[in-house]
């Protein structure tokens, strides 16, 4: 149904297609590029692993076409276990490699759901004295929000449904899907 690949069998329907993601990523990069045109010491893009890895790769390349120059850093935090609901408990699995004091930071996020993870992350980055911190999130579930978080750049608002693909997983699977979709109910039933 999606593009004839093996994983299509598990997907109930596609929410956002590969082409839509590509187009939106270019748009977001253009906005960020314009807003940070005057930043001389470069941006620091902070990717939250693992979900945002695809978006980070594509967003950084899109930004690279127009600048400003950016450094890439990665954090791994955990707020979800194997399941599909947020625990609100955040653990750092991998911290930033470099000091961010005085840097203009853009957090590259896959999806803002309850906002609990991002709320924690923003406070953490601010406590480390970044010059500025903004967020670009490819997806947001506006009806799921529990803590309001300032997300300056949003790709798509999507319904409050659990989605997979383009970095997003269910039990570590489906991250490699080039689109974002909803799993068939029987996939949950057999797990
Ligand atoms: P919160 O609720 O803290 O969640 O805003 C943010 C993180 O939870 C993950 N998340 C999802 N992962 N499908 C996924 O595979 C989803 O629909 C989904 N919603 C939230 C994601 O890692 C995000 O950064
Ligand atoms: Mg996940």
Automatic annotation (TrEMBL):
SUPFAM superfamilies: PRTase-like. InterPro entries: HGPRT, Hxn_phspho_trans, PRTase-like, PRTase_dom. It catalyses: GMP + diphosphate = guanine + 5-phospho-alpha-D-ribose 1-diphosphate; IMP + diphosphate = hypoxanthine + 5-phospho-alpha-D-ribose 1-diphosphate. NCBIfam families: HGPRTase. This is Hypoxanthine phosphoribosyltransferase. One of its GO terms (molecular function) is magnesium ion binding. It comes from Micromonospora yangpuensis. Keywords: Cytoplasm, Glycosyltransferase, Magnesium, Metal-binding, Nucleotide-binding, Purine salvage, Transferase. Residues 23-170 form the Phosphoribosyltransferase domain. The keyword Flavoprotein does not apply. Pathway: Purine metabolism; IMP biosynthesis via salvage pathway; IMP from hypoxanthine: step 1/1; Purine metabolism; GMP biosynthesis via salvage pathway; GMP from guanine: step 1/1. It is found in: Cytoplasm.
């Amino acid at each position: 149904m999606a593009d004839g690949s093996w994983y299509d069998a598990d997907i109930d329907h596609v929410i956002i297609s590969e082409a839509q993601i590509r187009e939106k990523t270019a748009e977001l990069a253009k906005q960020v590029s314009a807003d940070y045109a005057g930043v001389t010491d470069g941006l620091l893009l902070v990717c939250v692993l693992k979900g945002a890895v695809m978006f980070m790769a594509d967003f950084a390349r899109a930004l690279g076409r127009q600048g400003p120059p950016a450094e890439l850093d990665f954090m791994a935090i955990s707020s979800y276990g194997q399941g599909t609901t947020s625990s609100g408990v955040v653990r750092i699995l991998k911290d930033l490699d470099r000091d961010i004091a005085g840097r203009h930071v853009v957090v590259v996020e896959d999806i803002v759901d309850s906002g609990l993870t991002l709320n924690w992350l923003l406070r953490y980055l601010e406590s480390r004295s970044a010059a500025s911190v903004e967020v670009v999130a490819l997806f947001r579930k506006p009806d799921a929000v529990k803590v309001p978080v300032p997300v300056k750049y949003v790709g798509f608002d999507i319904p409050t449904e659990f989605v997979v693909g383009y970095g997003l997983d269910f039990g570590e699977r489906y991250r490699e899907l080039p689109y974002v979709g909803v799993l068939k109910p029987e996939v949950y039933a057999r797990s």
